Amino acid sequence: MTSSVPQGPRAVAKLKRRHELLDAAAGIIADKGFHAMTLEDLGEAVGISGPAVYRHFSSKQAILVELLTGVSERLLATATRIEETVTDPARQLELLIEGHIDFALSEPVLIRLQNRELYRLDDEDLRAVRTMQGRYLGIWSRALVAYDPSFAGESGRAAVLMVAGLLNSTEHVGHRWDGEMLRVTMTRLACGALGLSGDGAPQHPGR
């Protein structure tokens, strides 16, 4: 027990530095591309030397893997919590939309990274990301079919893929307009695409 006391602050500081490196790497890779990023660039961005980065990550590839798997892990964790705690499918869809919009507006750099650099992962890491993405969209699909059974099958899977693509478009437009206006517009478009009014009430009588 006593030996863990002095290690606590160091562990916290190391974790903080790790997060700083990930944030800096995301920005550099999004701007310059993965291959153009050097450890010297990354170290300088957080105030350490390039070689010191190896205290936190074994390689540039390890940084990319953590960034890209982290995106899917976060989205899946949020969606799983919604599915497990909310029973009304319309409300599930509203919260899924809200959660994805929160992510898309706060992390457009990570969306850009996922769109441009995902192919650089090796087969095992790419398979892990694709599995998490499939589970995430599966939660959307189940909520959509429970809300509107006419979306059963391929049409439901296509619908949630297209809505996710719409919400991820902040990579292209997020810097142009006010964030709150974008949030309202994205919510209206996504809810409209899935037949929601935005307050949980069906747009179409009989659903």
Would you kindly provide a written description of the structure presented here, covering whatever features stand out?
The chain is mainly alpha-helical and 207 residues long. The chain has two domains: 8-57, Arc Repressor Mutant, subunit A, CATH 1.10.10.60; 60-194, Orthogonal Bundle (Tetracycline Repressor, domain 2). It has nine helices and no strands. It has helices at residues 4-32, 39-46, 60-85, 89-106, 108-117, 123-147, 154-167, 170-173, 179-193. Helix 1 (4-32) packs across helix 5 (108-117), helix 3 runs parallel beside helix 6 (123-147) and helix 4 (89-106) packs across helix 6 (123-147). It is elongated. The termini are far apart. This is TetR family transcriptional regulator. Pfam families: TetR_N. One of its GO terms (molecular function) is transcription cis-regulatory region binding.
Summarize the structure.
The protein is mostly helical and 207 residues long. It is built from nine helices and no strands. GO terms for molecular function: DNA-binding transcription factor activity; transcription cis-regulatory region binding.
Distance from first to last alpha carbon? 59 Å
Instruction: Examine the coordinates and then state which fold CATH places here, giving the name of the CATH topology of the largest domain.
Output: Tetracycline Repressor, domain 2
- The fourth-level CATH homologous superfamily of the largest domain is Tetracycline Repressor, domain 2
Give the amount of beta strand, in percent: under 5%
Global shape? elongated
Mean of all residue-level pLDDT scores: 87
